[in-house]
Design brief:
This protein has 920 residues and is of the alpha+beta class. Strands 1, 2, 3, 4, 5 and 6 form a 6-stranded antiparallel β-sheet that branches. Strand 25 and strand 26 form a beta hairpin. Helix 16 packs parallel to helix 17, helix 17 runs antiparallel to helix 18 and helix 20 runs parallel beside helix 21. The radius of gyration is 54 Å and the shape is flat.
């Protein structure tokens, strides 16, 4: 036995020696690497410190050369201090060593004559670095510097105040923070000391260390003639590999040292060595133990292996039981098997002694476990499900059993593994119940729903769907209940949605069980599990009635629009003829009584025109047929025009209408609609003001223009304030006097406000007046249009072409133009006008045409054809009762003026004057 042990020792001795040699060599190599790393970091920090000192030297040299140490030195230095970093303080000292001026006023008057760096600078005439001090006046740890002031730069005075030396103080707290922000390896320290061995910086910081002398063991950092490394104990007591540079070597005048934690740096090497030693020692121990106990103790070795195997098995989630043949003795099992079987297997000697805990499958029918069948009969059991009832609930597992045979085919062992299915079974049951509840919810919801497979194939339709269509899942063609016209759109939307894996929807007509098609809104959403689409869930909602109602409403709106267009034209035509004939009567009525009657007639027609315009405007706004044309508008010309138009009306009532506009503002709005809002407010103010002043004002207000109308009228009470914008509501007109309008002016203002997005605010006090303000967004500067030329007194010999399909209106037009001195050609159609022009052989000077002519012709066409015949852009005006945007756009495109019926003779003459002036 001893010889075997000696042989084993001699055999393993070289291996042990090799391990010791390898470990020692690894530590030596690592220590050499640490020394090189420390030297590299030392070199970087040396360079950085040299750069900082060089920068300070350059700053002092620049300061001396700037020759600023004159009478205004302190003011100059303070201005300079605002540009310098806070960690650097500069100053000038005189011959007595007193600081006369500095970037920080607190050090002015302090003495520096005894400072070594000052004495050295004065004696050598060169830049000098001093030793650590606490700066007088500042109370901070600093490193001082000095540079002599050249004599040819110094002033000569008798009081000894000439500048002798420039000084600099470097804040050591900043220097420490600067070094602390450098990217150093873990467990690395940096130490800076002055020439006397006083510590000025230590990173990481140790409180109270700055200003203390280096310990005696570290005095090697101050001596020597080269950069070196050493293994020494640091200031914190930790052994470190330190690379150091004495003050006389690096040229910076400072001792610099970089230390790396020796133990921490070699820990990785020791761990690697320990890891290599551990298995080696384990193997050695096992080998020695096996040899010592001898071959005869093989059984004990098997027990050890069995214990190791069982330790591994204990970490398995699956249960494992091993029994030997033919005795049936359980030789191996784990805790998972005990938990699943529910019995302490360590107390059972033979497999036959097992209780029968499981039910279900062959185990219940034969009364024998899978392990017994494998051990006795050599049966191979695969995925046999076993179930055991417990107070906490059933436990389910899958059993796999298999015999182990020797080379002769005899069964020596049997192994069974038990996989716990309890949690999976519970999850499957929960999923089944959840799916059942989901199916019941879908089945019983009153909305038609269905479920499709991930590829879109149909899987399930609920009761509401089956009841509506009268079909089952399997019955008939899948899409036969969809209206044929909607089928292609449905398929296209469905294919794109499934390909993208996103929700999609469509409107289709679905056939009810009675054969009637009704509109439905269908929405299909993907159902995902772990990011994968597992189904598509669809819904269909019957929207047939609401869709039909919407279409009916749209049809009604279209009918209303057509009615408004027709009403606008048909109501304005006879009124237009009345205006023209009333104007024509002026030259034939000479008696005062007749002229009074004619004036009353014109006044009544003006009132009727205003009422008709208001009614049609409200109808058009309600129908939504007015589309604003937003542009940049200069406010001043717009307000000036309104003021000049209504000034005579206000003056006739004894009122003073003032336009107050001191700002040339430009706004973004519709010129005509904004003008209509302001005119209605001015008319309203004139109507309800008996005396005083009406002011039309414009002021800038928070990115908007505030256009306001201020009056001194009757005012509005608080209870009436909420009603004034209602249609047909009038303040102070209970008799419904039509001379005061219909009460639609403010209603139109409110509707135009909503259309244009221009809020209207009202302030009023009963008996003192009201203020209405419109907020209009500002725009870019707009060009102010040139004023229209004054109307001509007579147009003798000029030819006017007049076109209108209403004979009465045409007669009135001709009478007006003849009174103005025009020769006239009248026609009811384009062809008739062209024929008469050709027969006359003259080129017209102006044209006036109705917009809507017979046979769906329009006046624009007639004007363009006459211009083509004349070979010139003859000035023209369209008369129309259609206020839609199409008319305005078409007229502007061809340079044609537009007047909306009914129009007075004065307004028509002004429009013609503008057109002929433009043409000229």
């Amino acid at each position: 036995m001893v010889r075997w042990l000696l042989l084993l020792v001699f055999t393993l001795a070289p291996l042990i020696g090799f391990e010791v040699y390898s470990h020692t060599r690894l530590r030596a190599e690592r220590e050499a690497e640490l020394g090189q790393e420390a030297l590299r970091l030392l070199d970087l920090i040396d360079v950085e410190q040299g750069r900082i000192i060089d920068d300070i030297e350059h700053i002092l040299a620049t300061l001396v050369e700037a020759n600023i140490a004159g009478p205004g030195c302190q003011e100059t230095m303070e201005r300079l201090g605002q540009r310098l970093p806070s960690y650097l303080t500069l100053g000038f000292a005189d011959r007595s060593g007193t600081v006369r001026c500095a970037t920080d006023r607190r050090i002015v008057g302090t003495g520096v004559a005894n400072q070594p760096e000052v004495q050295q600078a004065l004696s050598t005439g060169q830049f000098a670095l001093g030793d650590y001090i606490v700066a007088e006046g500042l109370g901070r740890h600093v490193l001082p510097f000095a540079m002599p002031y050249a004599r040819d730069k110094a002033r000569v005075s008798g009081d000894g105040s000439d500048p002798v030396v420039a000084t600099a103080l470097l804040d050591l707290d900043w220097l420490r923070q600067y070094q602390a922000h450098k990217p150093l390896p873990p467990n690395t320290t940096v130490l800076l000391a002055d020439n006397n061995g006083t510590i000025i910086v230590r990173v990481p910081d140790i409180p109270g260390l700055v200003g203390q002398p280096l310990p005696e063991r570290l005095n090697l950092f101050l001596s020597g003639d080269r950069t070196a490394t050493a293994l020494t104990e640091g200031l914190d007591g930790v052994p470190r590999i330190v690379a150091y540079s004495p003050p006389g070597v690096n040229g910076n005048g400072l001792a610099v040292a970089v230390g790396i934690d020796h133990a921490a740096a070699l820990r990785a090497v020791d761990v690697v060595a320990l890891r290599s030693w551990f298995p080696f020692l384990v193997i050695l121990l096992l080998t020695l133990t096996g040899t010592a106990w001898g071959i005869g103790r093989l059984t004990r070795q098997r027990e050890t292996e069995r214990a190791l195997l069982k330790a591994v098995l204990e970490h398995l989630r699956a249960g494992v039981v091993v029994a030997e043949a033919p005795t049936g003795r359980v030789i191996l099992h784990n805790g998972a098997a005990e938990r699943l079987i529910g019995q302490p297997l360590g107390r059972i000697e033979r497999v036959e002694d097992y209780p029968r805990p499981f039910t279900g499958g062959p185990a219940e029918e034969s009364g024998e476990l899978p392990l017994v069948r494998a051990l006795r009969d050599g049966a191979v059991v695969r995925q046999e499900e076993l179930r055991r009832d417990t107070p906490a609930g059933p436990i389910t597992c899958l059993a796999d059993a298999e015999p182990v045979r020797d080379p002769d085919g005899r069964i020596t062992l049997a192994v069974v593994t038990l996989t716990d299915l309890t949690e999976r079974k519970a999850n499957e049951e929960a999923l089944r119940r959840s799916e059942t509840r989901f199916r019941e919810l879908v089945e019983n919801t009153p909305v038609m729903m269905w479920i499709n497979r991930p590829d879109g194939g149909r899987e399930y339709y609920n009761a509401a769907w089956r009841s509506y269509t009268g079909r089952s899942l399997e019955q008939g063609e899948r899409w036969s209940y969809i209206h044929p016209a909607d089928y292609p759109r449905l398929l296209d939307c469905r294919e794109r949605g499934i390909a993208a894996g996103e929700s999609y929807g469509f409107d289709v007509r679905m056939q009810r069980h009675d054969g009637i098609y009704r509109w439905h809104v269908c929405r299909i959403n993907p159902m995902r599990q772990n990011g994968q689409i597992i189904a598509w869930v669809g819904t269909a909602v019957d929207v047939h009635d609401s869709r039909m109602a919407r279409e009916a409403a749209e049809q009604a709106d279209r009918s209303k629009s057509r009615f408004l267009a027709a009403a606008s034209h048909d109501l304005r035509q006879p009124m237009q003829s009345m205006f023209f004939f009333a104007e024509a009567l002026h030259s034939h009525v000479h008696s005062p009584r007749g002229r009074d009657a004619l004036a009353m007639l014109e006044r009544g027609m003006e009132t009727l025109k205003g009422l008709l315009d208001s009614l049609l405007d409200v109808s058009q706004l309600d129908a939504g047929v007015i589309e604003p044309r937003i542009e940049d508008i200069a406010v001043k010309p717009l307000l000036d025009d309104i003021g000049s138009s209504y000034a005579p009306v206000a003056a006739a009532k004894g009122l003073d209408l003032q336009v107050v506009n001191h700002h040339d503002l430009t706004v973004r709005s519709d010129r005509n609609l904004l003008g209509r809002m302001v005119r209605n407010l001015v008319e309203n103010a004139i109507r309800y003001t008996e005396r005083g002043v009406i002011r039309l004002e414009c002021h800038p207000l928070d990115g908007h223009a505030g256009i306001q109308v201020r009056d001194t009228g009757i005012g509005i009470s608080g209870e009436q304030m909420s009603w004034i914008f209602e249609e047909f509501y009038q303040v102070g007109n209970p008799e419904r006097d039509r001379n005061q309008g219909l009460g639609l002016g403010l209603a139109i203002v409110q509707k135009l406000s909503a259309l244009l997005g221009h809020p209207v605010e009202v302030r009023s006090e009963l008996g003192k007046g009201s203020v209405f303000r419109i907020s209009v967004p500002l725009g870019d500067a707009a060009e102010i249009p040139a004023p229209a030329p004054p109307p001509r007194e007579t147009e003798r010999g000029r030819l006017a072409v007049l076109i209108d399909d209403d004979a009465i209106v045409l007669m009135g037009l001709r009478s007006i133009f003849q009174d103005w001195g025009y020769d006239t050609i009248v026609a009811s159609s384009t062809e008739e006008a062209l024929d008469r022009l050709r027969a006359a052989g003259r080129r017209p000077d102006v044209m006036v045409a109705d917009y809507r002519l017979r046979e769906h012709k329009v006046g624009t066409e007639a004007i363009l054809k006459i211009r083509e015949l004349a070979g010139a852009p003859v000035p023209a005006v369209l008369l129309t009762g259609d206020s839609g945007p199409d008319v305005m756009q078409e007229a502007e495109r061809h340079g044609i003026g537009v007047m909306f019926k009914p129009v007075t003779a004065r307004l028509l003459q002004e429009a013609l004057t503008r057109q002929t002036g433009t043409a000229a």
